[in-house]
Amino acid sequence: MPQNDPLNISGQLVAEKYRIEHLVGEGGFAVVYRAEHTIWKQPVAVKFFSGLSQAPAEQREELLHQFIQEGALLTELSSQTAGIVQARDIGAYTTPAGQWMPFMVLEWLDGSPLDAILQQDQRQGLAWTEDEVVGFLKRILPILDVAHRRGIAHRDIKPANIFVMGSAARAPETPCKLLDFGVAKMVSDHAKLNAALAKTGVAITSFTPRYGAPEQFTRSYGATGPWTDVYSVALVASEMLAGRVALQGEDLVQFAFSSANPAQRPTPRSLGAQVSDQLEAVFEKALAVSPADRFPNAGEFLASSLAAAGQLAPMGFNPAATSRPYSVPSPSVQLAPTVLVSPETQTASASKTKPEPLPPKPSQLGVTLIMLIALAGGVVAFSATELRGAKETRTLISSVVYAVRKAAAQWLPGLREGAQQVIDRAVASLPSVGGQAVAPPECPPGTRRVVSLPTNDQNTSPGAENSSTKAACVDERPVSEVDYAACAACEQPRLGSSKVKMRTRAHSEFCVTGENATAAPIQCITWKQADAYCQSRAARLPTEAELRAATDPTAAEAPIEWTQAAPKPGRERLGQFRCVSSK
User: Fold this and answer.
1) Which fold has domain 111-342?
2) Rounded (10°) angle between helices 298-309 and 277-286
3) What pTM value is reported for the model?
4) How far, in Å, are 44, 412, 414, 502, 562 from residue 408 at the CA level?
5) I need a labelling partner for 483 at 20 to 30 A (CA). Which of 20, 28, 279, 361 fits?
6) pLDDT for 448-469, tens place per residue?
């Protein structure tokens, strides 16, 4: 196999119209080739997600469907700004060696990735000036703002994902392109796929630790969102001003510490750069540890940067229009794509002058419902016969049922989250003894407020039933290995049998050697160790009712999670957990 062709596919025809020419880039997750569109006779970039070549066969169809949705989102965003790379096609390919992997066809870009430019600058000891960096922010932040206005965050901003078109990287008129909008996060969020890949030793992360915000390392700082991109862009800009990397570290734990260290923020001056007081203050806010203390989106970050530099906003960009729809959500709400209403939508809805049509009368609704039920019953009855066309009808009904079940599986978690919020608001509106409304308690970042029903489980610890009827702040996600490793007062978890060690080693070495902690949930913990960890946080393990209220009941084969109830004999080990504090 040639050294410059890791997949051995040069000269191959992909999807019957892309002739592979040569390799242009390779990483741990994907491989990029230059190819020619044989019909249009134009160059394209074909990105093969080689990290997914070991995905189980039964999950490939669903994974490919998610890639198609990701490609559609990328196409929609790139239609709104030329600064987001355009997706041309998507599919799956099997290499001559039998490797299956999804691929995405992207527009061909002439220029250089920013990481190559900065590496050359750092070797030569060349730093960017304040005006050059502000000019860079004027090019990159309006691109991000397009996605942020829809509530969509990139979550992996780094120099390698910023492409500079042309050779004059520091010139303010040289355009930039943003790459890789959320593909890695989409895959890392695929719980079943990650569990299957973990057995083969493959791990996929949704961000690059050297450019990670505190909330990406641990949920204790809150949810990720547009403010996460603000942090990462500010890190990149600090590196440009200082001529060296911003976060120091060699592994995930060290980068997590550098990212959230309140005594050493990676602002330009802390890295040795000379900048104005005004711009340093902007970076201090953009690089704040708490997401609530940062600029909530790219638009406000750019507006403040331009004000500090005494410059005007780029043509077509209106900072005032970007500040209204944004706010950092409370830690109990995980921001999801496209849930925010854009200013255009708000304006359009506010300008409606036509009256809404009157709803149908109850009698009309009843007649329509009866007719629909009768029609559906007739179709089902016909499909059960042997008449001509009945077989095709049965096939159609099966397809519809499958589609409905699949859609329900995708939407049920979101509906559950919405229902939980409705319950929380209803409970918050209940009058207190004094007759005044009870305000919902504030939960710390990384936790969510739940109100669980009383439990009659006899296995809960004393007092658990009473506590389950009160509002509580439960961790959004199980405690990770990184979180546990940061607890100086906690006992180092050890695995007892060699059989368990072999099974766990594929996931992480943390519980075997005490090193290399990952951001995955820790699952080699005993119930007593979990209880001690929560007590070190002035918290406790949740009751079963609280855990049910805080987790997804539709998750298949969910791992054991420790609660206040002591586990049954023989099951004291190998559980994951989260903590809770009563309010």
Assistant:
1) Transferase(Phosphotransferase); domain 1 (1.10.510)
2) 170
3) 0.55
4) 37, 6, 10, 37, 29
5) 28
6) 887 765 544 444 443 344 443 4
